[in-house]
Each structure stands twice: as C-alpha cells, then as structure tokens.
Amino acid sequence: MDRFRMIFQYFQSSSESVMNGVCGLLALASVKMYTSFDFSCPCLPQYNMAYGLGIMLVPPVILFLCGLILNRQSLVMLEEWRRPQGRRKKDLAVIRYMCSSIMQRAMVAPVVWIVVTLLDGKCLICAFSGSMDPEKFVGFANVSTVQVQQLLAKVPCKDDELMRNNTSRKAVSRYLRCWSQVLGWSILLILIIAAFLARWLRPCFNQATLLQARHWSNYIDIEQKIFEETCCEHSQLFAHKCILHFFESMRQEIKLHSFSLPKEGEGAEGEEDHLQGITDQDQVNKLLKMWYYEKPPLDVSQAAPT
Amino acid sequence: MDKFRMIFQFFQSNQESFMNGICGIMALASTQMYSAFDFNCPCLPHYNLAYGLGILLVPPFILFLLGFVLNNNISMLAEEWRRPQGQRGKDPAVLRYMFCSMAQRAMIAPAVWVSVTLLDGKCITCAFCTSVPLDTLGNASHPQLSQGEVQRVLARIPCKEIYTGQQLIANEVAVRYLRCISQALGWCFVLLMTTLAFLVRSLRPCFSQAAFLKSRYWSHYIDIERKLFDETCAEHARSFAKVCIQQFFEGMSKDLVAARCHLPRKAPADAGEAAEKLLGITDWGTMNMALKSWHRCKPPLHLHPPALSTGNGWAGEGQPPKHPSAPRRETAAYYSWV
C-alpha cells in the first residue's frame, strides 16, 4: 500500500493540503451517500413537499457542520478569537482570513449534495408535483379538485397501479425533472463564476494584507502544534522522573523494613539499575498496590536520586 | 509501486506538469459526468431547443472555468499583473504566455464534453427534432395539421413512449437522421480541434522562438520563486514558533522562582539534556499555571536577542521583527531580464 502512503504523505505535507484532502473526501462521501440513499417519496398531498425539501436541505446542513468539525483550523481560529489579549495583539485580518478559508472548505460538500440532488431530479419531482397546474396536462384536466391533488401527489410513485402507464404522469415527471436539472446546472454555473472571479480579482485588492494574514494564520497553526509537541515531550520526561522517584522511595522503604543489605557490585550493574532494587514477588506486589492506592505527588523538583 | 511514485513526483515537479495531470483527470471526469447524467428531454416545442443547447454548451463553460479555478497559476498571474513595479520590471510577454498556457489546458475538458455529447447524439436530437425536413423524410400521405400541432408532434420524437406522429414521420427515421448529423458534427469537431492543436504545436517554432523560450523560462521562474518563498516563510514560522515557546517557558519558570523567593536552584549534577528539556517546570501547579498562562496571556511576537545567542540546542533563527509583517526575503542575486 505504498501508493496510499505516498498520497497520504502528500496531503500531510502542509495543513492546507490536509484540509483540501478532507474537503475532497467529504464531497466524495456526499455523492456516495446520495447514491446509496433509498429515496422513497410518500406520495401523499401534504407530506410530499416536506419530504422532498427535507431531503434536499437537511443533509447539506449536516455535511456543513461535519466540515466545520473535521477541520482542525476551526478550533485554532476559535481559540485565537476568544483568547484574552494578554501580551500579544489580536489581528482581526488573520481571524477573518481563517474564518473565510474554513467556510469555503466546509461549503463544498453541501453544495455537491444540492447539485447532485437537483441534477437527479427526484427531490424536486416529489416536492412540487402537487403544485403543478393540472390544466396543462391532458390526463388531469377534467378531474375534480380533490382527486386531482391526490393524483398529482402520486406522480413520483411510478409503481402505483393508477399511475403505472399514465402518460400524463410521465409528462409531469419529465417537466419537473427538466426544471430541476436546469436549476442544478444554473447553480453550478453561478458558483463557478463566483469562484473564478474571487480567484482572479483577489490579488487586485490588498494583496499585501492577504500575504500577511496567510502567513500569520499559518504561524498560529504551527505554533499550536509545536506547543503540543513540547508539552508531550515534557510530560514524557516528567512521567519518567516521577516514576523513578516512586521506585526509589519504594526501594528505600523496603530497605528500611526488611533489613536486607543491597547486593553490591554483583552481576551486571545495568540489570541492577533496571530492577530498581525490587527483586522478589512480594516486593513487586507491594509496589503495584502502592501505585494504585497511593499515587506519588506530581512534583519532581527534588533532585533525582540516582 | 516505484513507477507510481515516479509518475507522481514527475507531475509534482512543477506547476505545469501538475496542471497536465489535473487536466487529464478533468477530461476523464467530464466523460464520467456525462455518462452519469440522466439526459431528460422535455419533449415540448420551445423547451427542447433551450434544453438541448443548454446541455451542450453550459457544462463546457463550467468545466472551462473550473480549469482556471483549479489552476494555482491564475492567482499568480493576477498578482504579477497587478503588482507595483518596484525594483523589478514587468514583462507582458510572460503574462501572455502564462495566460495562454492556462487557457489551453482549461480547454481540454470542455472539448471532451462537447465531442462526447455530439457523438452520443441525444442533445442534437432533442434540440433539433422540430426542424426535421418533413418534405424529404415525412410520409407521403399525412393528415393536414396546423403548424402548432406539427411542432408539438415533432417535439415528442425523442420521447419514444409518447410519440404519436407515426403517420407524419416514422420515429426511427427521424432519430437516425438527427443522430447521423450529430455524429458527423462530432467527428468534424474532433478533427478540427486536433488539427488546431497540431498546427499550434508545429508552427510555433517558426515564430519568435527565442522570445517564446524567454517567456517560458521566466514564467517557470516566477512559479518556482513563489513556491520557495512560501517554503521559506513556513520554515521561518517554525523556527520562530520554537524559539517563542522556549522563551515562554523560560519566562514562566523565572517568574515562578521570583514569586516563591526560592534561591535559584543549581542544576543537579546529572542535569544534562533531561533537566533542560523539563524547561524548569517540575510540578503540577507550575504546569497548570503554564497552560493557563498560554491561553490567557500569549507571549508577544517578539523574540529576545540574548536568548538566541546561547546554544540551547534549538536552532532558532527568528530575528525580532518590529511589527508582524511578512518576514524578510532571503537575499538572492537578481538577474536582469536576459
């Protein structure tokens, strides 16, 4: 799986690449989710619109929130926004830059869902079949109002006995699908034009400020990572010292209680060090019990005993 | 997977190669999109033309703009275009070269979409079914219908299941006719595009080859320079952060020592690296205070010069900047435009 490791490394190379990778994965996941979702329109007059619009609009909100959650930079941005000023000034341009980059990446998966939904057409057919004008379609023109509503509501259900071979149903379905696809392509076109203009025109406005904001937002990210790494290293050493202290204090206690002289200079010194003077089953049991019932204090300021 | 790694690295080597890769992926994606898209002709007189031509022309436009959006060079081009002259002259030939190379790559996916659409035939059938020549293809004995009726009947040609005009013109005949025209158009389009590409490639060395080589070199240079600048800034930010954090911990432990009025502890005999790495923080309370202080009172973005001269084992190179502006560029010899 060398290939995956390489792709993984490429995306890990900078935090922006990681975010782009997550963004792309979410978009693919949203397409996969849509294709595996079993859309089933209720075909009842009041429920159709709610179901259709619900399927079209609720998953995008969920995907947007997922995009925000999975993005590490949103936590960094929130922290930078809410921290007290202290000795370091806060630069609003940096916070704005981070916010806009997070929002842009989080918007990709919801937009993909909405566009795929519209291009497929089932949601809109389900939601708006009841709002069609029956006069336009031959099969529904001379039916009473109540019945026509019910018939129109059944249009999305191809397998219903009434509707199976109804040409007017197919006409309504085709009409709505056509509009749905037109809407989908239009939304895609507008968004792409907006993205193109944003990329093209951005260097025309405040390019220097943008470079600064980008640099310092990167810096904040790197600083946070290095701080966490430093803390990790520190806790390793701290833990090591703490445990050494504990073993030493146990050894001293055992020496006091058991009157056995420590063996001097026999055998390899290295092995003795590792054994920390604890050399039989009872001692080990006692040590383990102490470790559980009386953990040592978090304080290694005394000089480490050798 | 050594081969794959080599290919990957080759594409990564510069922006142009990377864009070639993206370009190929987009072309494949456009064929995939077309086959996944469910073409749904409305079969109504005025809607057919709009829908058919829309599907033929709008997605290529979207793909073309997408090709620009995905290309990082576009912001580089705009930046180079709008920057103040400063100490470096601007060469419009370089800008033109960059724009042309971007546009050429962005044209591939739309051309693929248009070719696939025309060769498949559904779009043209949908758009032009109402213009089928009834005199030559229609049945000799057909009922006299008004113009509107005829249009409505013909509009249903793509929708076989509701087509009612068998006496007017056989569905098969009309579809085959339109498909034939569509495929002919498709092949002509492919031929035209390929011929254009061939001419552009083969005739270019005949015109101002020297100027072309110059523009290509300097456009690659601008790309590489920008990448190196970004990498240098990232390196600088790393070093800056390391020294800043180190000074923060040192400052913390000094404060605590002062506050508790302890005598400064002499480093124990076996200090070495471990005690240094403990950064003077040796108990729970101190660590908590350090973490709280990190959040409540972040250190200023200002490194102290004296700390940098003591070899602490951390290669800090951050010079104290006067204000949080972009760091200095590494000085390099600028060659004048050759």
Automatic annotation (TrEMBL), chain A:
Transmembrane segments: 49-71, 92-115, 182-201
GO molecular function: monoatomic cation channel activity
Keywords: Ion channel, Ion transport, Membrane, Transmembrane, Transmembrane helix, Transport
GO biological process: ATP export
Keyword presence, Transport: yes
Subcellular location field: Membrane
Domain of life: Eukaryota
InterPro entries, per the entry: CALHM
Major localization class: membrane
Family: Belongs to the CALHM family.
Gene name linked to the record: Calhm3
Pfam name, any one: Ca_hom_mod
GO cellular component, as recorded: plasma membrane
Name under which the protein is recorded: CAHM3 protein
Membrane topology of this protein: Multi-pass membrane protein
Originating organism: Vireo altiloquus (Black-whiskered vireo)
UniProtKB/TrEMBL annotation, chain B:
Family in the record: Belongs to the CALHM family.
Bilayer topology term: Multi-pass membrane protein
A Gene Ontology biological process term: ATP export
Pfam families: Ca_hom_mod (PF14798)
Single GO cellular component term: plasma membrane
Assigned keywords, A-Z: Ion channel, Ion transport, Membrane, Transmembrane, Transmembrane helix, Transport
Lineage: Eukaryota, Metazoa, Chordata, Craniata, Vertebrata
Any one GO molecular function term: monoatomic cation channel activity
Gene: Calhm1
Record organism: Vireo altiloquus (Black-whiskered vireo)
Residue numbers spanned by region Disordered: 308-330
Record-given protein name: CAHM1 protein
InterPro entries (alphabetical): CALHM (IPR029569)
